[in-house]
Write a structure and sequence with these properties.
Strand content: under 5%
Largest sheet: none
Structural class: mainly alpha
Shape: elongated
Helix content: over 70%
Distance between the termini: 20 Å
Number of strands: 0
Length: 60
């Protein structure tokens, strides 16, 4: 079983969602100062890139 382009994009989307959720959780529960806002912002950025990867499935 080989991995085609759509499978690679699907795995990349899944991994980026996991990393985004973990960064938002770090920002929400671990850091109470300004660093928490930074972690949450980067987590939202990971969601945006995962959304782009998901939109590219089937088009590349």
């Amino acid at each position: 079983m080989g991995m085609n382009k759509n499978t690679v994009l699907a795995w990349a989307t899944f991994i980026m969602i996991i990393v985004g959720v973990s960064l938002i959780a770090l920002g929400a529960f671990r850091y109470d100062d300004v660093a928490g806002w930074g972690f949450a912002a980067v987590g939202v950025g990971f969601f945006a890139v995962a959304w782009v990867f998901n939109a590219l499935k089937g088009r590349v």
